[in-house]
Specification:
GO terms for molecular function: 2-isopropylmalate synthase activity. This is 2-isopropylmalate synthase 2, chloroplastic-like. It comes from Cucurbita maxima (Pumpkin). Keywords: Transferase. This protein has 100 residues and is of the alpha+beta class. The chain has one domain: Double Stranded RNA Binding Domain (2-Layer Sandwich), CATH 3.30.160. A hairpin with a 6-residue loop joins β3 and β4. The protein is elongated. The termini are far apart.
Length: 100
C-alpha cells in the first residue's frame, strides 16, 4: 500500500541528561487521502490524524520509532494487515550510513 503522508507535528523531550541521555519523540501524521471524522466537542469535520511515540539514546532512532508507530496506527485504521516494524532496521542503517 502506498499512502502519501503529511507530518503535522514533531516534538522531542529529554528524559535524562548527560552523554547517554534518553530522548522521547512524538509525531503526528495525516494520510493525504485521509478520512473525515467529526470532532465530538466542536461538531466540526476534521481529517483523521495518527500519533506515534518513540524513545531511545539516539534521537534518530527514537524519531523513526515514533514515525513507524504512527504509520502502523494509520495502516491499521485503513484495514491493512501489515506492520512496518520489519523495515526499521533498514531505515536505521540507511540513516547511519548517511551520517557516517
Amino acid at each position: 500500500m502506498q499512502e502519501p503522508v503529511t507530518l503535522l507535528d514533531y516534538s522531542m523531550n529529554s528524559v535524562t541528561e548527560g552523554i547517554d541521555a534518553i530522548a522521547t519523540t512524538r509525531v503526528v501524521i495525516r494520510g493525504d487521502n485521509s478520512y473525515l471524522s467529526t470532532n465530538a466537542s466542536a461538531g466540526e469535520e476534521v481529517q483523521r490524524t495518527f500519533s506515534g511515540i518513540g524513545a531511545g539514546m539516539d534521537i534518530i532512532v527514537a524519531s523513526l520509532k515514533a514515525y513507524i508507530g504512527a504509520l502502523n496506527k494509520m495502516l491499521g485504521f485503513y484495514g491493512v494487515d501489515v506492520k512496518v516494524t520489519e523495515k526499521i532496521t533498514v531505515c536505521i542503517k540507511i540513516v547511519y550510513l548517511r551520517r557516517g
